Structure to design on (449 residues):
């Protein structure tokens, strides 16, 4: 009896569970049908005779960052913070870093009210970076590194002391040119206190701006900005660059051509000074960074025939060598690399100098001896001028012209001597060497301003 009662209780419980599950299923089906009916009626009419309709459920949207065309805008606070960071590094003349910061901001996601500021700063930073891209770190002269060398001639040279030797000191001048000054020409050397050095440089900047005026040359303002950058005068750097932009909206192209001119100028100077490594560096810069500039083409033409001197208008004239009795001929090399190009001209110089370094003790003809004496005096004067005539010298063009005149005088004297003693190998080599230097000075004349 007890077993029967237990079986009935278990059956009742299981039956209740099954019935409850069935009831829940029927309610769910009924609710689904009601929802479909309500939804369709609400689409047809939102409200009828005061009746209520089920609300349309929409996905949640962040009111601060609405989705527009599938692009989620950046938070204004975040963009403002990144813009502030870019402005700070821009003020320190870290233009490349400024570009990197701003380029991380997808301009499509930047709030419209901040877009002009982002684009404006990005454009400036990229332009200003192009102005200083060729400035190596070695040319940055900190305010604590400035020295002034007083010369026996009464002048002075300002820059950073690079090296001290027994017979000379080496100074890197503000323009980047390294000058070796013999100790015999030095009256004194003293280091400027950083505060005084900075104040002096700032005053120099104000004086130059005053001379340039509000309508000065855009290129001159870019040059001034680059000088300020080298001196680590950052507010003045930006001010000068902005002035250049305001005067010429195509300044970037003009600056690229001007940089090519300066590279060509420095290459010619270092080549004349016998500093082959420096000459290779500047020629390599010219050929790789500005291959389409007219100065890259001039350099290639120069080194194909080092003895082809430009005429006074700057055009390349035919060579002026006198015979080939000296046996010195340029090396044949079709390569257009900077090193190979310079090697062609340098080899010719070296071959000629090996001969001219051993002049005859005496000449049998007194007229030849007199012409050679006069030619040597003019030649030596030209060499002295060329050694002290650096690209950043304000009187460079004038000195270079004087060297050309002296070399012309020397060439005429040697030519007169060759008319009498045309088989003299030393005279032949010296005449060609003189014309090589004259050709180089004429090339410098077309780029020295």
């Amino acid at each position: 009896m007890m077993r029967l009662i237990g079986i009935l209780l278990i059956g009742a419980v299981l039956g209740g569970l099954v019935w409850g599950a069935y009831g829940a299923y029927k309610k769910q089906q009924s609710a689904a049908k009601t929802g479909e009916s309500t939804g369709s009626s609400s689409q047809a009419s939102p409200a009828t005779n005061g009746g209520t309709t089920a609300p349309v459920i929409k996905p949640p949207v962040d009111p601060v960052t609405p989705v527009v065309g599938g692009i989620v805008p950046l938070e204004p606070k975040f963009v403002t913070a990144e813009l502030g960071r870019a402005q700070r590094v821009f003020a320190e003349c870290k233009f490349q870093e400024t570009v990197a910061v701003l380029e991380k901001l997808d301009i499509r996601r930047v709030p419209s009210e901040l877009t002009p500021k982002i684009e404006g700063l990005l454009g400036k930073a990229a332009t200003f970076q192009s102005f200083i891209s060729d400035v190596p770190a070695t040319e940055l002269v900190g305010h604590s590194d400035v020295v002034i060398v007083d010369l026996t001639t009464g002048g002075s040279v300002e820059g950073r002391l690079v090296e001290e030797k027994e017979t000379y000191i080496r100074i890197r001048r503000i323009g980047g040119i390294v000058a070796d000054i013999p100790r015999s020409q030095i009256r004194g050397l003293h280091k400027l206190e950083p505060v005084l050095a900075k104040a002096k440089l700032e005053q120099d900047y104000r004086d130059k701006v005053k001379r340039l005026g509000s309508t000065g040359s855009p290129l001159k303002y870019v040059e001034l900005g680059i000088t300020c950058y080298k001196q680590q005068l950052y507010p003045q750097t930006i001010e000068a660059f902005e002035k250049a932009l305001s005067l010429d909206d195509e300044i970037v192209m003009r600056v690229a051509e001007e940089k090519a001119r300066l590279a060509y100028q420095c290459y010619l100077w270092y080549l004349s000074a016998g500093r082959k490594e420096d000459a290779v560096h500047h020629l390599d810069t010219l050929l790789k960074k500005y291959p389409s500039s007219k100065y890259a083409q001039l350099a290639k033409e120069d080194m194909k025939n080092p003895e082809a001197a430009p005429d006074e208008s700057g055009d390349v004239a035919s060579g002026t060598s006198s015979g080939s009795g000296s046996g010195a001929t340029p090396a044949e090399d079709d390569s257009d690399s900077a090193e190979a190009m310079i090697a062609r001209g340098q080899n010719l110089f070296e071959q000629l100098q090996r001969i001219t370094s051993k002049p005859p003790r005496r000449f049998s003809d007194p007229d030849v001896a007199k012409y050679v004496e006069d030619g040597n005096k003019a030649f030596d004067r030209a060499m002295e001028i060329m050694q002290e005539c650096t690209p950043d010298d304000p009187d460079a063009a004038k000195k270079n012209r004087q060297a050309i005149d002296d070399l012309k005088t020397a060439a005429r004297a040697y030519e007169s001597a060759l008319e009498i003693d045309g088989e003299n190998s030393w005279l032949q080599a010296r005449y060609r060497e003189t014309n090589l230097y004259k050709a180089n000075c004429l090339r410098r004349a077309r780029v020295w301003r």
